[in-house]
Design brief:
Elements (H helix, E strand, L loop, with lengths): L1 H43 L5 E9 L3 E8 L5 E7 L6 E4 L6 H11 L2 E12 L2 E10 L4 E7 L5 E5 L3
Antiparallel strand pairs: 1-2, 2-3, 3-4, 5-6, 6-7, 7-8
């Protein structure tokens, strides 16, 4: 009897792990596909040569930000909207970096842990979105201009 209980518990544990892996894999698949599409589109139009990273950025409209270097070796961001809309490029030379954006947030806010830093477009202006958990364990989003580091928007205590 004890062996049956051990077998059933082991089988259910294995089944739970398999289901969790499947859910995580299948849940992330749409993001992976749209990121690959955006990278291919930016490369095919020769806006970017080497890709460092790409991620989905969502505001009023979803887009994919592709960060990398041009054929001239210049660090560039390409904003690829979902759909067939026009792509925008931004040279990151003389712009605020992700590290600088995080440091500005750390100086002014009570940050326990930074969750992510993403570059995106808000009202035709490039901004860094910094998501973090503060000392009270609440979720916060702040948006800083990539041009000059000025605060654009704060969404606090979620």
């Amino acid at each position: 009897m004890r062996q049956w209980i051990t077998f059933i518990l082991g089988f259910l544990s294995f089944l739970a792990v398999v289901i969790i892996i499947l859910v995580l894999f299948l849940g992330n698949k749409p993001y992976s596909e749209i990121e690959e599409y955006a990278i291919d589109r930016a490369k095919s139009e020769q806006l970017i040569e080497e890709v460092e990273r790409a991620y989905v950025y969502t505001n009023a409209k979803a887009s994919v930000t592709v960060l990398g270097t041009t054929s001239k070796g210049e660090l560039t961001a390409v904003f690829v909207p979902v759909g067939d809309e026009k792509m925008q490029t931004l040279s990151l030379v003389d712009k605020i970096t992700a590290q600088q954006a995080r440091e500005l947030v750390l100086e002014e806010m009570d940050v326990q842990k930074i969750l992510h830093t993403k570059l995106g477009m808000e009202s035709e202006e490039p901004v860094w979105e910094v998501a973090f958990v503060d000392e009270k364990d609440t979720l916060n989003y702040v948006y800083l201009s990539a041009n000059d580091g000025q605060w654009r928007k704060r969404i606090l205590n979620l």
